[in-house]
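Quick log. Single chain, no ligands specified.
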Amino acid sequence: MHEITDIERLEEMKSSGAVLILFGGKQCHVCQVLRPKLENMLQSHYPDMQAAYVDCETSADICAQHGVFSLPVVKVYIEGMQISEFARSFSVDQLRQSIYRSYTMWHESR
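-> predicted structure:
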């Protein structure tokens, strides 16, 4: 999972291909536990999806521009279009299932 501190880099990732973005913080224990679980999910189920991490403590401007005001937040984009968003309380399985159809259609059309 790439740590992103530059809004231009994040916008580039969102517009090209599939990307899962975790908005979190060093003081957010849920975020720290969630990060490796998301990485494992992507590796197992969505290997062509990029992963990005935005630390809202150090990149508050990026989080504010994306409407993130509580943690954790996960947003998934395919070719610049947001297909999924989960905030605060959710399971990795819920997230995995919400991505499945859009990711499969995108992956097969490549």
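The mean pLDDT is 97.
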